[in-house]
């Protein structure tokens, strides 16, 4: 084994051992942080570089800074809602403005969950098919459909909370795989083979126009996941959730930035025809073992995220319909809509569709924050949250997939 392979395996083993160790799992601060952190990184970590590098080259680094920065600001609105909106919502009567906006945002989130379940499982299939050397998109849809059907069948018959218990290990596996990936890219970059260069990507010509901006809007899904702390009130108090979201967003932003910088020598390998799972194949040039490590972590992460969103979606459907649709029947609805989304879209379009769905939810949450800020007489924050709502609405309306 080469030094790079030894470093990769060592990082993978040590990181996984630390993450699943009892002291770490029992740490409340870590437990509250790991859910949003894993959701953010799992949402689109591996699809981000091939899509953005092929479209805008080294400008992808600036773009990911902008996307994570926007997400942090929107997270600020949701943190504001945790602090100030939740106490108001507890005692608000039906018809109250803030409660009405919150209800609409939850309905929007249900739709986003439908799409995200499809998104996660289509990516899972894409990573798996890429690793096995298959490129037929219809085969990937069949695989994703089978998994959707299985998840929702188990949910309808027995519930998914037994499956959810495996999340500790799937999340840890994905985070350990990402740590191993970053270490591998660092070692690779410090001693680049003669066929690679840190400056080759600078020589590539890319056009940045209105469609490019709309394409970047369609990638908001890669930083989605921080909002999960908004719905963890049964587990943690407001202060814990607010600090957990902040830590998760800052940590994930740094991971994204480091990832995009370390991957620069690989940028020329991503072309306009690059698929979302292209990174799995490209990292094989760094180490023949790295695709298996990366794909294994990604597959575990996508499955875990799909289960989590299925559970979240079923709970929201039950709550929003005042238990007229119980949680188990909701799984049937989730499965039916998810299958429709899978077969009505392609994987690149699904990335943009998921981004637009969550952007609409973020816009509604920003509107909740605007209403709360106005009620509190905080004009400055009301203006900030109103601006963020407008940006999120623009993303929901204008985001497009790669290639338009």
Structure description:
This protein is mainly α. It has one domain: Amino acid/polyamine transporter I (Up-down Bundle), CATH 1.20.1740.10. The protein contains 15 helices and no strands. The protein has helices at residues 3-19, 22-25, 28-56, 59-91, 97-132, 137-157, 161-164, 167-190, 210-217, 238-262, 278-282, 290-320, 327-344, 347-375, 379-398. The mean pLDDT is 89.
Brief synopsis:
The chain is mainly alpha-helical. It contains 15 helices and no strands.
Radius of gyration: 21 Å
Distance between the termini: 44 Å
Write the H/E string, N to C.
Answer: HHHHHHHHHHHHHHH
**Residue share in helices?**
over 70%
Gross morphology: globular
CATH superfamily: Amino acid/polyamine transporter I
What characterizes the major β-sheet?
none
The number of E-state strands comes to 0
- For this structure, the CATH topology is Amino acid/polyamine transporter I
Low-confidence stretches: none
CATH class: Mainly Alpha
State the secondary-structure class.
mainly alpha
CATH architecture: Up-down Bundle
The tally of helices reads: 15
Residue-averaged pLDDT: 89
Q: Strand fraction band?
A: under 5%
Number of domains: 1
